[in-house]
Design goal:
about 325 residues; alpha+beta; Penicillin V Acylase, Chain A; six-stranded antiparallel sheet; about 15% helix; about 35% strand; choloylglycine hydrolase activity; CBAH; lipid metabolism; hydrolase
Amino acid sequence: MCTSILYTAGDHYFGRNLDLEVSFGQEVVVTPRDYPFDFRQMPTLDHHYAIIGMALVKDNYPLYFDGANEEGLGMAGLNFAGLAHFFPVVDGKDNVSPFEFIPYVLGQCKNVAEAKQLLVNLNLVNINFSDQLQLSPLHWLIADRQGAAIVVESTPSGLHVYDNPVGVLTNNPEFPSQMTNLANYQSVSPANPVNTLMPKKELMTYSRGLGSHMLPGGMDSESRFVKECFTLHNAPEGDSELENVTNYFHCLHAVEQQKGLDEVAPATFEYTIYSDGINLATGTFYYTTYEDNQINAVQMHNVNLNSRELAQFPLVKGQSIHAQN
């Protein structure tokens, strides 16, 4: 399970929590403009926008979990088990495998409007990376530095592209159902509630934060969607990059999963392996991991973006504690 957001505060910050029970050895990877993307059914992309993001590099191919390009377009793939459906190759369509989807879009599009045009003839096809690496059931959040966002879902009924006015995506159910469910929580507020139960009677307010009393707090994807919408859309705007990055990670960490709380198999628990975010205007990629709360940063433009070789940055491991005495 996962959560992805677009946070607007001065610049736009895009990224996600990756929630799984096992890590894949992912790292921060910069794909420069002249690295050739060989697609299974589409022409090779020899020259494209540079991309930075979290990826597993297999056979020198970056399998991106999420990322953004140098023009400020971001994209993340999130689990969509039981609902995702990928199709056979169809003549006359742009046949792209889901493992190629992120570089296919980020390599060619500057913003959400261009991505929408690219998706018009798209067919997400059932082609695995290899026998050892099967396709994951995914749907995707795509967002840009102008604040636009869309959700892409491929289901048995076809490819669906939805405008996303809230800038949040989790997992099941399908995105329109997530948006409909938000209406059940319209009264949730950061402020203490007004007594509409018995307006003529004075009721004791026994706690701060009663306006959020009905806010769901489970690890399930529907609860996380609601809670993250509430957190994100009430988050403050900072006056500096440091403040905004701090606020951004607090938004993601509001729905992080701790070990021991989401059992997916006997004695096996899903947890937030990493949280990341990129400033879509500057190309700075930030991340934390479950083992390290320190915010680490990789700047895309400090890499030679005209190279043909991937730049790889292993994740910092181990907690960082500042001793004051």
